[in-house]
Design a protein that fits this description.
52% of the residues lie in helices and 0% in strands. By secondary structure, it is mainly alpha-helical.
Amino acid sequence: MSPLLPGYLRLLWDEPGTAAALLLCGAGAERVVARAPALRSRVLTWYQVPGLDQERLSETLAMFHDVWEGVDPAKVGWADATVARGTFRTWAKITSRVYALSKRGRDVRVDRAVIEQACARLGPCP
């Protein structure tokens, strides 16, 4: 984050009549705020959001998008272990690609081949 951005965010917060909340997400966001005392003093609450729960991953994904309904949890677990690693942002990308692939033909089942194809398009994982 640019050194000027925390100052700009503080000025937005201090503007009279502002009724907004600022949500910073991602690795390192807390370090950036900690280095800007004027911004850090305005933090009301910190939340730590853990990765997706492995035991409820299939259920969570089915609630997120119906393309995951009825998909074998072992196949979902494979994708999480090898690609997504509990990161919802990555699961959103995989879901988008799985959905596109599943709509290419009639009654395409979301199986491991479709999931692998969707994951392969994500590129290298850190």
